[in-house]
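HOLO CASE FILE
Compound: adenosine-5'-triphosphate
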Amino acid sequence: MALVEARNLCKDYVAGEITVKAIRGVDFTIDTGSFVSFVGPSGSGKSTLLNMIGCLDPPSQGDLVVAGKDVTRLDSRHSAKFRGDHIGFIFQDFNLIPVLTVFENIEYPLQMVQNWPVEKRRKRVEELLGAVGMADQGKKYPNQISGGQKQRVAVARALVTNAKLVLADEPTANLDSRTANRIIGLMKKMRDEFGTTFIFSTHDTRVVESAEIIFTLEDGVLQTKNGNPGGQHA
Ligand SMILES: Nc1ncnc2c1ncn2[C@@H]1O[C@H](COP(=O)(O)OP(=O)(O)OP(=O)(O)O)[C@@H](O)[C@H]1O
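Model generated. Tokens follow.
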């Protein structure tokens, strides 16, 4: 079943008299449970595309359906609600809250976005801590753990609300090769365990090889191979 469907999707950034055509009419479909990477050189439009799929930035033109909802023209209040209900995010610089413990960082979306009762929250956070191999690290603060461990916490936080879709913009950019491969392996394991769809962007060739479906972007356009637009199965 399709989780993300984009038709003739475009994004222009307008600043005064200058317009940057960051995404120029792309079409693609991503099925539920896929493990997908957008790849391409710097400036090709990867972040722009992820930001639109994540309802952080609206398209300038085209149609975008995520989890059965037409999100093309959602206002900011409905976008925020939709993100909170359906989408988890992982960032290259981890984005953990320094004054909160590992446990509290993972718990945060349940408290802030979904308002779960305390005991239900504790059980869910412990489940996720175990799933990402951090069961004994919950009391530590972000500055007391390694980069790879921080990204494990970020993966747990992205999944804690049962998000259908996790978007990761360059999730391994700040990690060494071995740790990068472990994080990608962990994301795949989470996909297998929870059925979550993962879409990430990278220009890291070590990471590209781990994706099951690869969409190559160049100058805001999806490249075709052998006459097939967009995604190639790796
Ligand atoms: N807020 C913005 N305002 C104006 N132009 C922007 C903005 N964000 C991105 N761009 C431009 O849009 C194009 C695509 O940028 P984008 O960040 O999506 O590329 P990317 O493939 O993610 O690059 P990188 O790998 O370096 O992160 C680039 O030409 C960039 O300069």
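CASE NOTES: The chain has a mean pLDDT of 92. Residues 13, 15, 20, 22, 40, 42-48, 203 surround adenosine-5'-triphosphate (CB under 6 Å).
CLOSED: yes
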